[in-house]
Design brief:
single chain, alpha+beta, three-stranded antiparallel sheet, 3 strands, elongated
Length: about 70
């Protein structure tokens, strides 16, 4: 994201904060403005939920304090 914004600014474009409504809630976003037109940026990270496996230390603590 930093490299993208740095390049945009070196080309004379600006980055502006914006607020969009999603599902009735205000969500802050960022847009690059080129010749008066705003292009919103969205950065997402896909994650995978992994079940927690208790460590031996966590097991001992659980036995002492159920």
């Amino acid at each position: 994201m930093h490299a993208l914004l740095t390049e945009a600014e070196s080309r004379g474009y600006t980055a502006e904060p914006q607020t969009d409504l999603q599902r009735g809630e205000a969500v802050p976003t960022l847009a690059i403005v080129i010749r008066g037109r705003a292009f919103p940026l969205v950065l997402t990270e896909r994650t995978t939920k992994v079940p927690h496996e208790p460590t031996p230390k966590e097991e001992r603590q659980k036995e002492r304090n159920p």
